Amino acid sequence: MPVEVLVFVIVAVFVIVFTSSLSQRTGIAGPLILVAVGVGVSLIPGVAAVSVPPELILVGVLPPLLFSAAVSAPAIEFRRDLAAIGGLSVLLVIVSAVVLGLFFFWAIPGLGFPLAVALGAILSPTDAVATSIVRRLGVPRRVVTVLEGESLLNDATALVLLRTAIVAAASGFSFLTTLGSFAWAVLSAVAVGAGAGWLALRLRAWTTSATANTALGLTIPYIAYLPTEALGGSGLVAAVVAGVVCGQGAVRWLTPEQRISDKLTWRTIAFLLEGAVFLLMGLELWGIVESNLEAEEGLLAGIAIAAVALVILIAVRAAYVFPMMQVHTARVARSVRHRLSVDGAGSGRRTAGRMRADIEYFDASPLTWKHNAMIVWAGMRGAVTLAAAQTLPAEVPSRDLLVFIAFLVAAGSLLLQGMTLPVLARLLGLRAAGASGPPRDEIRSIDEQLRDAAQAAIDGDTLQRRGRTPFSDALSSLPRAGFVAPLDPRGGADAPEALEFQLALIAVMRERLHELGRSGHHSTTALRYVLDELDAFEISVKLHLESER
Asked: Do the Cβ atoms of 308 and 107 come closer than 8 Å?
């Protein structure tokens, strides 16, 4: 690695860290500051134009970034809003690409309709990194869930459309071929991603070292991505599916040490990759502008076309979101109520309970026109759009102009919508709805149920030491407040026995937490908060037990 590149990486890390601190102090979203810093540096005289290979973003950055987001994805909430997320990820991308294609076909002389649709496909998907701005605003959790789900999945639709449009430009368009390509891209990705996640969990369960386990975990996004791409599927969707499988299976297959190590590692990776994506996006400005200075179309034409394209994107998104989200929400809630009334009595208790929990969720957090307005305005484009544009073949007519338009739409969307989102949230009265942290009342409710389970295990005399011997009576009379709290063992019990008793209680409470998670009555946020507390306490108890021995 050249020394210059190493110096650049070090400086970039410092800039990303400093920007994060500045963002917390000023309230301005960190990604916006990073884009501005990158643009400012690119305009300094003497600074060489930066050109990032698109493969670096599409292959090097996106798989681990999407995987890290999928690992922490709220699976319960995703399932409930799957219809809405699917519509935004597939139907809206296709409609946006076609509408934009018609505009580009008219606005750019010499550009064929397939390539116009290709550019529309590049601009259509929202960016998973850009939606991190929304998450930091503290808008209602259901809005964040829908936006995150959309941004995790719509890249597949866009990239398949892009690939198909480029092929159609060279050899002609076939609807059946396009439909088959899309179906294969998604189905193969789901199969390979799920298989990779399942295999990784079992291999990691066999690896006892937390350090070695985390190192193995870093390969999972690429284990899912590479074979899927080789099969002609969507490697990004495979990485997302693998992330969801690993995130849901970690509770069962990994130890507390491994889960905490994973969480910290992927948080750090996501933090650095997100920052790098936005910084590079700003740094590429001058190189893209320079390549268009001498073009026949000129900069003004590109700016005008990009501005109209951004307006079209927002208009199409609004025209889809406002009616369709209402239809999706009403239909899903109605379907759940119908299923519960028809076969709820014949269903198992868990299934019926999950249906009732779904109804309570839809009733407690409806998507009103205010929420839909936030979903519309939060549909920002990002570095994925720019990277996808740079994959256009060199022989494409007006290629530099197309890349320039893609950059302007992505940067304009990010800056215009990203900077005004806090204002919109305040005007709509949606600000800080959940920004105060985890849901304390729900966490207290879960905590009480876990303590009830622990008390039942004590009363039923089912707790045993490793040697199948019972615990002393002094420990069995431990008050509820001491179930998950530092023990001061007294009353005839030695310290190791007291610590083993605490571990036995934690095992009972964790099993009860799993049952609560399967019931669907509690949010993913609250369940994970309690799990993190149990994990941290179990690690502490194990360390004390080792020191006692």
From this structure: yes
d(CA 284, CA 294): 18
pLDDT, tens digit, 9 for 90 and up, residues 491-502: 444 578 888 888
CA 327/CA 335 separation, integer angstroms: 12
Q: Is the pLDDT of residue 222 over 90?
A: yes
Tens-digit pLDDT profile for residues 437-476? 678 888 999 999 998 898 888 887 777 776 667 777 666 6
Last residue of a domain, one of 387, 403, 428: 428
336 within domain boundaries = yes
Which of 219-233, 293-307, 343-357, 462-476 bottoms out in mean pLDDT, i.e. has the lowest?
Answer: 343-357
Q: Are residues 392 and 507 in the same domain?
A: no
**Helical axes 524-548 vs 495-519, angle rounded to 10°:** 160
At 389, list the tokens. 């544009």
Tokens of 538: 């179990």
Report yes or no: 164 and 245 within 8 Å, Cβ to Cβ: no
Number of Cα atoms under 13 Å in the Cβ half of residue 144: 24
Alpha-carbon separation of residue 119 from 110, 167, 262, 267, 291 (angstroms):
14, 13, 38, 33, 18
CATH of residue 146: 1.20.1530.20
Encode pLDDT of 90-128 as tens digits.
999 999 999 999 999 999 988 889 899 999 999 999 987
Cα of 368 vs its chain's centroid, Å: 23
- Enter the tokens of residue 111: 């550009």
Higher pLDDT, 420 or 351: 420
Q: How many residues are present in the chain?
A: 549
State pTM to two decimals.
0.84
> Are 375 and 476 found together in one domain?
no
Q: Judge if 389 and 461 occupy the same domain.
A: no
Above 60 in pLDDT, residue 29? yes
Q: What distance in Å separates the CA atoms of residue 471 and residue 489, rounded to the nearest whole number?
A: 12
Select from 394, 428, 462 the last residue of a domain.
Answer: 428
Handedness of CA 431, 437, 441, 443 (dihedral sign): positive
Cα distance between residue 251 and residue 540, in whole Å: 18
Domain assignment of residue 478, given as a range: 440-548
Percent of the chain with pLDDT over 70: 87
Amino acid at 90: V
State whether 359 and 445 are in the same domain.
no
DSSP letter for 130, please.
T
Is 433 part of any domain? no
Residues 6 or more apart whose Cβ sits within 8 Å of residue 232:
181, 184, 185, 188
Sorted by sequence, the CB contacts under 8 Å of residue 190 that are 6+ apart come out as 237, 238, 241
